[in-house]
Design brief:
It contains 2 helices and 6 strands. The protein is an alpha+beta fold. One of its GO terms (molecular function) is DNA binding.
Length: 108
């Protein structure tokens, strides 16, 4: 839990995601995302409608109310995601830090 200057409290969980290339990125869960977090070490997580940001030379992911978190997705969903990522990899690299949102594998 953390507090804001206005006295409001929020639930907060931070996790570090690591891919096969050992790249790391911090994902912060707030409020209902923090309360509903189901992941454990080595859980595969797929995120939809998230934003990648750079701050002080570190990358982090931001969730919004439109974000969806999937845990241990089935093989079919994972294949769709890999295909989408491979098609959009260049666009993703160009958009990091620019605040651009890419449509997810389902087109959303």
């Amino acid at each position: 839990m953390f507090f804001l200057k206005n006295g409001q409290t929020y639930e907060k969980k931070e996790i570090v995601l690591i891919d096969d290339s050992n790249e790391k990125i911090t994902l912060t869960f707030l409020n209902e995302f923090a309360n509903n977090f189901k992941g454990k070490i080595n859980t595969k997580i797929t995120l939809q409608n998230t934003k990648i940001n750079d701050y002080k030379n570190q990358r982090y992911l931001t969730l919004s109310q439109k974000s969806i978190v999937f845990y241990d997705v089935d093989k079919t969903t994972n294949i769709k995601f890999v295909e989408w990522f491979n098609r959009n990899n260049r666009c993703l690299k160009d958009s990091v830090g620019n605040g651009h949102n890419m449509p997810g594998p389902s087109g959303e």
